[in-house]
Write a structure and sequence with these properties.
Keywords: Antiviral defense, Endonuclease, Hydrolase, Magnesium, Metal-binding, Nuclease. This protein is of the alpha+beta class and 92 residues long. The radius of gyration is 13 Å and the shape is globular.
Length: 92
């Protein structure tokens, strides 16, 4: 059985590195807002994604927070305005 998580990633990255982090996250999950990504991801891809991020950030200046959920059903999401992407369509 594949272990799939729903993740929410928020970050505050030095502008010299922000595009690199954006490109990494975009490979794995859906961009929702500036500095915010979310979606379903396998455990193995979580490890890959985190490894790629760690190689690009400066821990002295940058901050990334990843929230892990067992299911999207355990959170309530309210969007005021236009949602960039329908996360339920995120394909692994």
């Amino acid at each position: 059985m594949i272990d799939i998580k729903y993740v929410l990633v928020v970050y505050d990255i030095n502008e010299k590195r922000v595009n690199k982090i954006h490109k990494i996250l975009k490979k794995y999950i859906i961009w929702q807002q500036n500095s915010t990504f979310e979606g379903y991801i396998t455990q193995s891809n979580i490890k890959k994604m985190i490894g790629e991020i760690k190689r690009k950030i400066n821990p002295e200046e940058d901050n990334i927070v990843i929230y892990f959920f067992n299911s999207k059903n355990v959170i309530k999401k309210e969007v005021d305005g236009t949602e960039k992407w329908n996360v339920s369509s995120n394909i692994l």
